[in-house]
Amino acid sequence: MRAARNRTARRATTLAVVAALGAGLLAGCADDGNDEDGSSSGDSSGKTTITLGLFGTMGFKEAGLYEEYEKLNPGIRIEENVTERNENYYPALVNHLTTNSGLQDVQAIEVGNIAEVVETQAAKFTDMSAVEGVQPGNWLDWKWKQGVTKDGQAVGLGTDIGPMAICYRKDLFEKAGLPTDREEVGRLWAGDWKKFVETGEKYKKGAGEDTYFMDSPGGLINAILSGEQEKFYDSSGEVVYKTNPAVKDAFDLTAKAAGEGLIQSQTQFQPAWDQTIANSKFATVACPPWMLGYLKGKSQPDAAGKWDVAAAPKSGNWGGTFLGVPKSGKHVKEAQKLVAWLTAPEQQAKLFSVQGSFPSAPASYKLPQVTGAKNEMTGDAPIGAIFAKAAETIPAQVIGPKDQIIQQGLTDNGVILVTQGKSPEKAWENAVKTIDNNLEK
Predict the structure, then answer these.
(1) pLDDT at 195 over 50
(2) How many structural domains compose the chain?
(3) Domain with 216 in it
């Protein structure tokens, strides 16, 4: 998420982070390709228009990649149709795939949905492994495998990943009497998310009531679970979220932090949460690289340079996206060529340098756009080196077809209720009931 994640979203939200698509997902999208005059296939100059269906701010446009590609390919014009949240984008995408209509030439697929798309919709997508220049070794092994069927079809090519870190406000930490150097800060909670919550307790004592230690309960539980090899499904494909101790432990620790008033009562990537960024209401946020772009977009100008990045208690991945080319698109070959170019190491490095989307192509990590990367929000912090180090130890995680439903149930119908006065036990019961009802639909 980009989450979920915004890009997660992410994103976050992605979100990682991140994010949703509702019934209006592709309201501005291309038609189903059955128009008689073919007017949507190009503009008045006769150029071929390639359309992309995306969620959140994926950054291709902002990084100048479309413009660069159009200069390299004068006969091509690129348009993107963006839905803010993946939870609104994805249901609409599934509907368009099911009816085989209304699809863009290129469709983004969030990591939380890739398993379901690979399992149930692969026949609707072209095989990107057969495209010229595409080599599995160009991607992290676990990232490549996430988008590939059992018979070897690459449904999509990976764009970013979300190696986990913690972004923190140096000024708020100093006010609370905590260290501000990123190495010292990382040592406060190294190896254990319980130490992270304990740091939050110290923060609250020193900072008073004006700010919270962390941005949201959803952000904390997602960060904790991002480092587990198995969370909602086991390796055989069975749903295990109710019996997996790692899930319940993450829920209980987040509920503890919420009950102690360490976390805002906010849902990530909603307008009210955005406003707390602008108003500097929290000191830390679980921070895969794409979150830096979100912070930059929602902060006031005077927040620039006040953030820094420290290692997370444990390595994990939150977010990441794939680009697939539907077979029913009007410009399949042109779209495949564009996707292969957008996901090449050089373009992934450029995207990171502008947007903070960390590459899934290891060859990018040695390029100057990554090694010398800085971010306006984090000043001189060597973010490329920080996130590259975090990426080295990300576990290969089991991703199930309904991960997004389970994750959203735990956050939006679970731990956030503790910040609103419910007991952890009641919040867990509500989350389980909501998830199970949605899994049966």
Answers:
(1) yes
(2) 1
(3) 165-318
